[in-house]
Design brief:
With 1173 residues, this protein is of the alpha+beta class. It has a domain at 369-507: Alpha-Beta Plaits, CATH 3.30.70.100. Helix content is 42%, strand content 7%. The protein contains 39 helices and 20 strands. A 5-stranded mixed beta sheet has the order 8-3-5-4-9, sandwiched between helices. Strands 10-15-14 form a 3-stranded antiparallel beta sheet. The longest helix has 29 residues, at 168-196. The two termini are 94 Å apart.
């Protein structure tokens, strides 16, 4: 060590001398900069240290430097370590050994001796060589390069941990405390200022620094907005102009998501324990109390209780003490037992109730809280006047149960009405129906026959308040006095319910039995004369009361707010005069059927099977079959009628307008006649829980035109009117008094604050008028024909068709630029400008939305184009001939487009083969069947055609036909019943291009468009409740008596359902859970909800149930239409050449011919344009 220190000292001295020589000569070294920055020989051997006389050495050194520089520049040497002399070392002020640059030098080098350390050092050197190796391109040029050894890829650096500064949260808490104190002080100063009368007080300045803006705040302009900015991304205070019409696929201001670090707030739900669970909870509480007392005794906090001694446990408890003095111990035990007995008796005496308290307790148990509603029961007894004992029991039990009500004694009808709580009603019902033996008494009927006495529960339900006081008897010699008594208490309907069934109580039981037996065996054609007379009498009385109620409603001016969403919904279901007349007849028949079912005590299944076999002569003005057949023979068989009558020679009314829908399955009503099914969840609840929350995604290949055409077809096939008052006023069913509540109201229950949604029942149909009016389940009216005959354009009645015609050259009336004729008197029009009135067409729903109006305009122009061309080719044809021929051609085009272009994309190719829907390619169609009924089914009209809702998008784009740029859009909210925009120049073309360029909504079962669920027919300008379209369709299915979803699966040969789990594979799991949460049983699922929940199958956009219903529907339409465009060998058939031209028709041609200035159109208008065509 000493020697090393000495050598180091010498080197330091030599280095000092060298530095002094350099400073004296002031010679600076010039470093070499080549490809790699390396020290050169010249920088190591300073020229100032060379001898000036030794010029040979200097030249050699210069030549050597030049060679080294050339080799370094050419890259031949690579990273070569040039040997140099040891660098002189010096000591700094701290005594450390440093070099010229001041870097510390480690003189002692540690050399590994163990093999493990040697191998470790070699590995480190090898890794260093790899890092300093050549680039990939240079390495691969060498012959010894191994491809398995690659350059180490770049690694992402580890993110350093960020720690909070010490005291950060303490400072934050201090700031919050200071801010709170300042706010408290400011409030005190403000209060003092108000008390002293000072108008204002100086606010304290906040010491706390201003909080920074939250990072979650959404700025006005984001980076993705640069697409619509004219001058690029502006500064914060810089104003810029915006290009509103630019289309981009980016999302503007996306909804912020909850940070994943924020904990979810727990949702607390009330738990309702059963009786067994409450008992278990009490037992656990007692056990905890005992354990707590034991712990206190064990810790000495409480004295242990004396043992409960008895003679039986004396020896076991006291042990040796009992043996020492048994007499004394026994006396002590008996004394203790007597003391406990006395304490128990004193406690019982203290708790014993007095006589008044016992009576009060008994009354309190019998009386129930009726503030939220009163339970009411109505009983009808055949004879109560002549039976004192039964009368005493009826009155006494009602008073003992603290029931209110009245007993009406009338010779033909004794009515008992009681009001109270649910438990009170249950006890009284057992008395009236079981405990009192009414059959023991034999009474006389009107004919003097002996019949047993009888008690019938007419009705039980709830009421908001009590209408009677203490129960009393009232004797009425005539029916009018009894009615007036109930009317005085505002419950006249109680008497109507009881008295309506009393008429048939006096009918001979033998007659009824014979009648039922006859219906069961062979089917009766008419009712027995006596029964028919009684029913007719009671029906007349009931219909008179019905008319009185309607007159009272009209006098009270109870009606929907004009312009409300429910008002516009009523405009889509308004009645014609013919439908109103039919509905009155149907209500009369329905009333008779209900009375007959109640009198004969039929079940709903018996009523649905037996009533259709019963005929009643209640339609004297109905058309005669032979008369109608003769009228059909007189009509021109070359062309179809507007009403659809006379299409089928054997059944002239099949498929005609103002006829009832047919049914694939028998209806299911609660009473077998007309009462909708009960014990079901609210239609609004089903809509909001099952159909809400669906994503609004674009369909991958279906255009928006598909949804518009679907709605147009639905309007061509079905139009179900809803009940109205005789003065054509639409019914108001929500927020009305009982006196103004119409019997045909069927409102939808909804959650608060909505509470109620409007719905009036569909108009009933009296049945097949050609075979006489028959009793049976309620049927509904179709106001349009069931054939594909363009009834929305031409109308379903001859009067409407004449109004739409111009009377010249077979043309239809138009206005301005080939638009439908104006209808200035149309009530439901939202067009405020009289210069742009709503349109008038063959269907009152023409103005429902711009897309639907567009379809009317297209086929209107097509008809006039065809008529003008026929006029040019046949100038000798008159107006009627031109009109009928043009109408026949345009209808044929519609039928061909529907089955050739539309149905393949909706039903799929597989369904076309299954239901025989493929069109004939050559020649005529030979499948017409005179036995096929083309009448639309109730299930298709009320549910199947609703598939269009799943395809309807929120908005309809308006695209310029020349530039193909989007110029705007129309939502369903702003466009209903307001077609004034179609008067604008180029509006038709913008709608056409938008419908063929925009996409339909992608059906995502079971979700629907949120506008249809919450804001349909609502423009946001009123406070009225919006229309939930899905709830309306669900309620309509129940109103029409459609069987539940499980029945339709059996009808369509699909697997039966017994539990919700059976839906797996057809319905998504989350949808199954939604259905399970709403419906109590899988058998309660509505047809619409179940069918929309199914996943599409094969190449269709529909589930298997809707596919089945619509496949059968369109097959029947084709097979049962005598005027189908492919049919031959009929007077009105097309020739083969004409049929070939019809088969060339496409929807794209209709659009091109009838647009204003369209420049282009894709060949397949319903689906996405194929870029490879």
């Amino acid at each position: 060590i000493r020697q090393m220190m000495a050598n180091a000292q010498k080197e330091i001295e030599e280095r000092k001398r060298a530095l002094k020589a350099i400073k004296q000569e002031d010679v600076s070294a010039k470093p070499f900069k080549g490809r790699d920055t390396l020290p050169t020989v010249g920088s190591m051997y300073n020229q100032g240290l060379l001898s000036k006389t030794d010029s040979d050495k200097a030249r050699k050194i210069a030549a050597l430097q030049a060679q080294i520089r050339n080799k370094l520049n050419s890259g031949l040497l690579g990273n070569v370590n040039v040997p140099d002399k040891p660098t002189p070392l010096i000591l700094d002020e701290s005594g450390r050994t440093v070099d010229i640059t001041g870097k510390e030098v480690q003189l002692t080098q540690v050399v590994p001796t163990l093999k493990a350390n040697i191998r470790a050092k070699k590995r480190e050197e090898f890794k260093a060589q790899l890092q300093e190796s050549k680039g990939p391109e240079e390495i691969q040029d060498t012959h010894f390069f191994d491809n398995r050894i690659g350059v180490k890829p770049a690694m992402r650096g580890k993110r350093a941990l960020k720690f909070h500064e010490p005291g950060k949260f303490q400072q934050l808490a201090e700031r919050m405390r200071m801010k709170t104190q300042l706010e408290k002080l400011q409030n005190e100063i403000s209060q003092i200022a108000r008390k002293t009368g000072i108008s204002s007080a100086t606010k304290l300045a906040l010491i706390a620094p201003k909080t920074e803006a939250l990072s979650e705040d959404v700025p006005n302009i984001e980076w993705w907005d640069s697409v619509i900015l004219t001058g690029g991304y502006p500064n914060e205070n810089e104003l810029t102009t915006i290009k509103n019409l630019t289309i981009t696929n980016l999302v503007e201001h996306p909804t912020q998501m909850r940070p994943p670090t924020d904990p979810l707030k727990p949702i607390y739900m009330p738990v309702f324990l059963t009786k067994k669970e409450r008992k278990k909870l009490r037992r656990q509480n007692r056990r905890e109390t005992w354990k707590e007392e034991q712990e206190k005794i064990r810790l000495g906090l409480e004295a242990p209780p004396e043992p409960k001694l008895r003679i039986s446990n004396l020896m076991r408890v006291l042990g040796t003490e009992a043996v020492q003095d048994p007499t004394k111990i026994e006396a002590h035990v008996r004394q203790q037992m007597a003391k406990r007995l006395k304490a128990h008796e004193d406690a019982n005496a203290a708790r014993r109730l007095t006589a008044d308290q016992r009576r009060e307790k008994k009354a309190r148990k019998l009386k129930e809280d009726t503030s939220l509603g009163v339970y009411v029961s109505v009983y009808r007894i055949r004879d109560l006047v002549n039976n004192a004992s039964k009368k005493f029991k009826v009155e006494t039990n009602a008073k003992q149960l603290y029931l209110t009500g009245c007993v009406m004694l009338f010779r033909d009808c004794n009515v008992v009405v009681v009001e109270g709580g649910a438990k009170q009603q249950a006890k009284y019902k057992r008395l009236m129906m079981h405990r009192i033996k009414w059959e023991e008494d034999i009474v006389k009927d009107n004919d003097g026959n002996d019949v047993p006495n009888r008690c019938v529960l007419v009705w039980e339900g709830t009421s908001k308040q009590r209408h009677f006081g203490e129960i009393k008897f009232k004797v009425c010699p005539i029916e009018k006095m009894a009615r007036e008594h109930f009317k005085k208490h505002q419950v006249e309907h109680y008497w109507d319910l009881a008295y309506s069934g009393a008429v048939l109580d006096n009918t001979d039981e033998i007659t009824i039995r014979r009648f039922l037996a006859l219906m069961t065996l062979v089917g009766a054609t008419t009712l027995p004369p006596r029964m028919l007379h009684d029913l007719d009498k009671r029906t007349n009385l009931s219909m008179e009361r019905y008319s009185q109620a309607e007159r009272a409603i009209m006098n009270s001016r109870t009606q929907l707010n004009r312009g409300s969403p429910s008002w516009y919904l009523g405009a889509s279901h308004e009645m014609t005069e013919g439908a109103q007349n039919l509905s009155r007849k149907a209500l009369r028949i329905e009333t008779m059927a209900v009375m007959l079912v109640e009198a004969l005590n039929m079940s709903s299944k018996q009523a649905s099977l037996i009533l259709p076999t019963v005929a009643a002569v209640l339609c004297p003005d109905s058309p005669n079959f032979l008369r109608l057949v003769s009228e059909c023979k007189k009509s021109d068989v070359h062309y179809r009628t507007h009403t659809g009558r006379c299409n089928n020679p054997l059944h002239p009314t099949w498929g005609a307008a103002l006829e009832a829908y047919v049914r694939f399955l028998p209806p299911e009503y609660e009473d077998g006649v007309s009462l909708p099914r009960t014990n079901l969840p609210s239609a609004r609840e089903v809509s909001s829980q099952v159909h809400a929350g669906g994503l609004d995604l674009k369909h991958p290949y279906l255009m928006a035109l598909t949804a518009l055409f679907s709605q147009f077809l639905a309007h061509d096939l079905a139009h179900t009117p809803r009940m109205e008052l005789p003065d054509r006023t639409r019914l108001k069913c929500c927020d009305v008094d009982y006196e103004n509540f119409h019997p045909e109201c069927f409102p939808i229950r909804a959650e608060q604050p909505i509470g109620c949604m409007e719905y009036s029942r569909s108009a009933p149909h009296p049945g097949n008028s050609l075979q006489g009016c028959k009793l049976g389940p309620r049927q509904q009216i179709n106001q349009v024909s069931s054939y594909l005959d363009l009834s929305p354009l031409y109308g379903s009645f001859e009067e409407t068709a004449k109004t739409l015609r111009s009377g010249e050259d077979g043309l239809l009336n138009t206005q301005r630029k080939n638009l439908p004729m104006a209808s200035a008197k149309y009530e439901s029009c939202r067009s405020a400008n009289k210069a742009f009135p709503c349109f008038f067409s063959g269907d009152s729903r023409v103005n429902e939305n711009p897309g639907l109006t567009l379809m009317h305009v297209l086929f209107l122009r097509e008809h006039n184009l065809v008529a003008m061309e026929l006029k040019r080719l046949n100038p000798h044809w008159n107006d009627e001939k031109l009109y009928q021929e043009a109408r026949k051609i345009v209808i044929a085009e519609l039928q061909h487009i529907t089955y050739n272009e539309f149905l393949p994309v909706i039903l799929g190719e597989h369904a076309l083969d299954k239901y025989s829907l493929r069109l004939t390619q050559r020649g005529y169609f030979r499948g017409y069947d005179i036995r096929a009924d083309a009448t639309l089914s109730n299930s298709a009209a009320s549910a199947g055609l609703f598939f269009v809702a799943a395809l309807t998008p929120k908005t309809l784009d308006l695209v310029d036909s020349r530039s193909a740029l989007k110029s705007g859009e129309r939502t369903l909210l702003s466009a209903f019943y307001a077609p004034q925009e179609l008067y604008e120049a180029g509006a038709i073309d913008r709608l056409i291009v938008g419908a063929t360029a925009g996409h339909s909504r992608k059906p995502l079962p079971p979700g629907l468009n949120e506008i249809l669920l919450d804001r349909y027919f609502h423009d946001g300008k009123t406070n009225d409740v919006a229309v939930d379209y899905a709830a309306q369709i669900i309620q309509q299915g129940r109103d029409h008596g459609l069987p539940p979803y499980v029945r339709w699966r059996s009808f369509c040969d699909l697997p039966n359902l017994t539990d919700f789990q059976d839906l797996t594979g057809t319905v998504a799991k989350d949808t199954i859970e939604r259905l399970r949460a709403v419906y109590k049983n899988v058998g309660d699922i509505d047809l619409v909800t179940g069918a929309l929940s199914e996943a599409p199958i094969f190449d269709s956009v529909l589930g298997p149930t809707f596919l089945c219903l619509l496949g059968r529907t369109f097959r029947n339409i084709r097979l049962g239409d005598r005027y189908w465009y492919e049919n031959g060998n009929t007077p009105g058939s097309f020739t083969i050449k004409q049929l070939e031209e019809i088969r060339k028709s496409t929807m794209a041609q209709i659009l091109c011919r009838n647009g204003d200035r369209l420049q282009w159109m894709q060949p397949r208008a319903f689906i996405l344009k194929d870029p490879f065509l």
